Structures are given as C-alpha cells and as structure tokens.
Amino acid sequence: MQAMSKSKRHIVLGITGGIAAYKTPDLVRKLIGSDFEVTVVLTEAAEKFVTATTLAAVSGRSVRNDLWDPDAEQHMGHIELARWADLLLIAPASAHTIGLMANGLCPNLLTTIYSATTVPAAIAPAMNQQMWFNSATQRNVEQLKTDGVLCWGPAEGDQACGEVGPGRMLEPEQIVSEVLKLCDESNEHKPLTGINVLISAGPTREAIDPVRFISNASSGRQGFALAQGAHSLGANVTLISGPVELETPEGVSRVNVITAEEMKRNVLIHAASNDVFFSVAAVADYRPASVAEQKIKKTQKFSSTLANLKLELIENDDILLCVSEAFPQLVKVGFAAETNDVLAHARAKRIRKNLDYIVVNDVSNPTIGFNGLDNECTLIHAEGEKKLNKASKEEIARQILLEIAPSIRQRTRK
Ligand code: PMT
C-alpha cells in the first residue's frame, strides 16, 4: 500500500489575536519547509499582532481575513477553503476563538471555515494563565476535545504579561512536529484521510400505488460496510441510502431516500463535493409510468376491461452514468450484480459507464450478494482484475478500499 505523501497536504492556518501571533511567520516558514502548502486566515484581532503582508510573503499565497470579501465569496471562498484543507490548524488559538468554536458560533471567516470543514482540526491555545484556568475556557476546551479537535499545548513558562504559568503557545517547531506526527498516523493507519467519499447503498422503491412498490432484495449491508470501512480509514463519508433496516455507521453522514429519482438528485448534489463515488445501490431500472392515487382494488380484476392488471414501466435514469458524465474528475467505483457471463458483463459495464473500477458479484449464488452477510467479488479495473474470496461484507469492503486507496490518493492528489 502506498503511503500518503505529506508533500501534497494543505493546511489552513488560522491565526487569532494574541502576542504569540508574532511567531506565526516562522511557523508558516517551517510548515512550508516540511512540504505543506499553507493558506493563512487571520481574525481581526490577529491583525493587531501580525500583518497579512508578511504572512502572504512567507506563505506565497494570498491571506484571507474577511468573510465578506466580495471577490473570494463570489466563489464561496469559505467553503472552498474548508474543502481545500487537509488540516485546520489554529495557532495561536485565543480564549475568544475557542469559545466561539465550542459553541458553534461563526462571526468571522475562520470560525465559519471551522464549522464548514470535516477535516481534522487542531488548536494551539495561547493566553494569559488566568484566562486558561478560567472555568469557561476549560469547559470550552473540553467541548472541543469531545468534538474531536486536537489540543496542542499550551506550554508553561514566562508570559508576555509578566505572569508565569500555562498559556504559552507551543514553539513553531513543536507545532510542526505535532502536524508531522498526525500525518504519520494518517499514513500508517488511515490511507483515506482527507478523502471525501460518497456511497449509495440499499434498494430504491418505485411506487405502484399508496401501498405497493417495485423494489429488490438489497439489504444495504455491502454499501454500509464500505461506508464504515472508508470512515475508519480516515475518509469523510456521505452515505445516500435507500430504505434499509441498518444503523448509520459512526461518523458517517447519511441521507435517506426512497425512489431512484430521489437517489439521483441527492447523489448529484453530493458528487460535487466528493472525490470518490461508490455506487453500491441496487437502483430500480424501471418505475411505473404513473402511480395510482388510491390503492388498486383487487375487484378491478373482475371487470371486463381489467382481466389482468398491466403495469406500464418507464426506465429510470442510470445514476452512475449521469455522475460519470457530469463529474469526469471523480473516481467512480460501480458494482455489478450479474447472474450469467459475470465477468464479461461487468467488464463491458465498466467501459460503458466510464468507471475506474467495477466490483462484480455473481448474484446467482444465493450465499453471497443480495441480503446475505457475505460477499465474493472480482474487482475489475483497466490494468487488471483481482478476485476477492468469499468473506464478510466488512472484510470485502476493507479489501476493496485498501486495494484502491493508493490510486484514489494519486488521482485526487491529496
Ligand atoms: O445491499 P446488499 O444486500 O448488501 O447487497 C449488495 C449488492 C448485491 C446490492 C451489491 O453488491 C451490488 O451488486 N450492487 C449493485 C447492484 C446493481 O444494481 O447492479 P447493476 O449491475 O444493475 O448496476 C450496475 C451499476 O450501475 C451499479 O453500480 C448501480 O448502482 C448502478 N446503477 C444501476 C441502475 C441505475 N438506474 N442507476 C445506477 O446508478
């Protein structure tokens, strides 16, 4: 498995108001020296301590300081930055900013980015030691830790105000070492860190009348196993699920849908902000041309005109094909449920739908595929094929994810 290259990692460095801000040009230089790209975001108070000109010069990128910057915000700049980042680092983090973050308040660009990002966030607190001990500050720091924010420091020692105690920002080299440690952990255990993964799972239901529908036996297990697996490998996962009886895997963001139309709409909305799409859902290929407003009565069967009830079906859009056409840059992984000439059909499907990978399962085998706990697949891509022997759907998901993680990283350049 290819290790994650830190040379391609992006850091949004948020600088807040505090005397330690004078150390941030050095911090930026050291981060760049360790092969990170750094975009600096300043709060209004930070600008009392350090200038945007200096930080733009050392980072080589424009510095952002205004949520209301019309040029940047025309392109939704705060969202773009939230997505660009692999790490949001706030150093120094003032008591004020920590309080805003802990309480979900977004009065400025930095706190807005924090609330809009799903990537790891770290704070390097810096403040007067009494402010650090203040019970509200401690509560807020605990809240951020509970929310998954990493807290680096503060260090103890002489303070600019003349007092001695905890509240000094860690030195730039200590902060860089924490960042590198975080990268190494990601490299070793979480090859999908920073990757945004979209997964569709489960069946769709196409209504015939208010109580009947066309559907299939997909339980959602294979898609949910991929969602759980991708999350545990570090990905930010969005799961678009048809109607299934499964709990949402921890840390996964889930959107419930019923019909193929709803699934298509939601997949296309989310595809724009994702790097990879796993299309595991068993989408109904057809839906009734019209939905009866009332329950269709059995008695109609006995009328002369309706001896047999005939349903006219119209074809649903192929969601995966729509995604392929609209988002060529996305890594696309299709699934194929086949019952005959399994490999030949799957190879053709991969090419027809312009997919990077297709995972084919032979669903004529009742012990795998639809609704069971296990699966057995072949992973097909342009350069070759790999058989994944019968195993639990979780294990199959893990093998698929580990197999393709390196090329996802390469394609997404994250
Ligand atoms: O949910 P489980 O019980 O765990 O079962 C798992 C599974 C058998 C459903 C899964 O492993 C699987 O094979 N999913 C794909 C099912 C399917 O619809 O295959 P297909 O060969 O008909 O479709 C090929 C691809 O096109 C799939 O990625 C599918 O999501 C996509 N598709 C199909 C039709 C359509 N209208 N839109 C689509 O996007």
Oligomeric composition of the shown chains: single chain
Query: How many DSSP-defined strands?
Result: 19
Bound molecules: ligand PMT
Sheet with most strands: strand arrangement: 12-11-8-13-16-17-18-19
What is the count of helical runs?
14
State the end-to-end distance. 15 Å
Largest sheet: 8 strands, mixed
Derived from helix and strand composition plus strand pairing, the structural class reads alpha/beta
- How big is the Rg? 26 Å
Average pLDDT, to the nearest integer?
92
Question: What would the principal axes of the Cα set say about the shape?
Answer: elongated
Q: In percent terms, what proportion of residues is strand?
A: 15-25%
Low-confidence runs: 1-7
In short:
With 414 residues, the protein is α/β, with parallel strands linked by helices.
Task: Describe the structure using short key phrases.
414 residues, alpha/beta, eight-stranded mixed β-sheet, 14 helices, elongated, disordered N terminus, binds ligand PMT
Please characterize this protein's 3D structure.
- This protein has 414 residues and is of the alpha/beta class.
- The chain contains 14 helices and 19 strands.
- It has helices at 24-33, 52-59, 70-74, 77-84, 95-102, 109-116, 129-133, 135-146, 172-189, 221-232, 260-271, 319-326, 342-352, 393-412, and strands at residues 10-15, 37-42, 87-93, 121-125, 150-151, 155-158, 164-168, 196-201, 206-209, 212-214, 236-241, 253-256, 276-279, 286-288, 313-315, 331-338, 357-362, 374-381, 384-392.
- The longest helix has 20 residues, at 393-412.
- Bound molecules: ligand PMT.
- Ligand PMT is lined by residues 202, 218-223, 260, 279-283, 285, 316, 318-320, 334-337, 349, 361, 363, 369-371, 393.
